[in-house]
């Protein structure tokens, strides 16, 4: 099918749809439930609560250093399940294909999606394909939804976060966002910045196995980046989060290119990173465990949770002009704020991303 | 928000995304798991096997007589679960919005989606929104994925179909497809043909409760219509299916408009219909039960299952020229065929839909 392209008839539910399903999708996706080609997969789940999530992927370009839309579609949904404490089990995949999309590209994406699912230990058990006319899509969009099981006794969430906790991350910040943006902007690096796109369930399951009581909360900082995710935490808990700028693991080339583009890595998307809020007495042990994991070699403790100040900050070493800004309309919904402690000891408010012109990063 | 439109920034994961989620999605979708705004919903499921499915909706136009893309997105996924014998429980919803899409239309769609979910007794427990640039989408596309529970002991499937079984349907054929096509073609009817779009889990659960042993198989004939769905059955079982043309419930206006457009209602999509293969001795009782249900008043027995003839048909009354055609490349994959028995006693082969120019019917 190398030079063939998607036709509208590939989406009409008839003979060409069936051929597409058999020749591409079932060639790579082999779960028995999927091969049945019935309306819904029938599955068994072990005991526990069900975790369920969905994400749609519209990343542009669809192939980028370190990944592609297929890998991303699996990793993204696996990670959303993993950070809630679930063991991801089953995924669905819904494709929107634009008329004219090369079948060879579709095959490459599906093969990558299948490979990533295998790596993550999840099965694709149901799928759907729709075709839209040229100009009503952009090659390929993929939705994945997933379910997993949360062991009884596992309790992660905002309600467990308390002042004194530490904030950890399993590695460098902003790689995915910068990989996409530099590819789009046509910027060449000597060593290309690769997306960190990866399924994180191996990391999160290891952490929950080894530190069941010390892990309070996990979240993957995707769209909006570390700064936006931590703003969600501060708004939902009422606590402040103080990030230590000198502790942030950021690749030199990411920092440089971000400055060139006028961007802050703290607002760039990550697709293989997890922010962990943990009890401070376990922080060192958790860091060591993370650093032994292939996806955690650059892990760092980047901040701490403090009682909310209601938007103001008045430490001895602070720079008053930066710190007394009134909270904006978004942050006003919660009392907590996120502050960046600079190497000189000043504190800068990190707000949620607003009106950033970076669509289709995932 | 009446005159506001979707901006790219509504999809960047930052402040505008959060506002959209709070002001539109959470206004109508109120499941506690969704309001938590965490990465995955945590849910409890009763005992049984898990059924899981996904479907993407790209219907054009998004508002049509009898429904809209929001209603369709819930009904379609609920129905895919219901026909496997599951009680649908939880749905996810993933939106792809095109820059410039009116927020008022989004609100109308989300309200309809929420209302249909409530009618069907399912909860929307996770969601996602992406925004693509103008010209890379078409207003709104929605993916829904769903899970449900199949009671132990419930066993529906191709393997239970056998010669002698009857084929039933809960009402008129082709209404959804014709509603969409006539709206697109600008055809006006005195009484507009409404889409049959509806969640069918009430019907299927009633049938499984009352006729647990006699229902062999159910399937909703959506894209490709009744003819394509029954071709899937015949190919998967090796059995022939003989439809009785005079028994097909087709609205007069649908038949007339389909002829005008050069289409066969048997290939038009349905979104509130279920094909039921059942033991013949229960057929009458099942028909009566269907006709007592609000979604079954036009129910009919439309055909029977017979042992496969390998593509040929040689009854005394047949018209040989129509019946000895070699099976095409698709049908060659199975031995069974679908035949339409005409009022004059002839038999016409009904193949799977091939190359039909009707994209975006659902």
UniProtKB/TrEMBL annotation, chains A, B:
<feature type="domain" description="PurM-like C-terminal">
    <location>
        <begin position="163"/>
        <end position="311"/>
    </location>
</feature>
<dbReference type="InterPro" id="IPR036921">
    <property type="entry name" value="PurM-like_N_sf"/>
</dbReference>
<dbReference type="InterPro" id="IPR036676">
    <property type="entry name" value="PurM-like_C_sf"/>
</dbReference>
<dbReference type="InterPro" id="IPR010918">
    <property type="entry name" value="PurM-like_C_dom"/>
</dbReference>
<dbReference type="InterPro" id="IPR016188">
    <property type="entry name" value="PurM-like_N"/>
</dbReference>
<feature type="region of interest" description="Disordered">
    <location>
        <begin position="313"/>
        <end position="332"/>
    </location>
</feature>
<dbReference type="InterPro" id="IPR011854">
    <property type="entry name" value="HypE"/>
</dbReference>
<dbReference type="Pfam" id="PF00586">
    <property type="entry name" value="AIRS"/>
</dbReference>
<protein>
    <submittedName>
        <fullName>Hydrogenase expression/formation protein HypE</fullName>
    </submittedName>
</protein>
<dbReference type="GO" id="GO:0051604">
    <property type="term" value="P:protein maturation"/>
</dbReference>
<feature type="domain" description="PurM-like N-terminal">
    <location>
        <begin position="39"/>
        <end position="150"/>
    </location>
</feature>
<comment type="similarity">
    <text>Belongs to the HypE family.</text>
</comment>
<dbReference type="Pfam" id="PF02769">
    <property type="entry name" value="AIRS_C"/>
</dbReference>
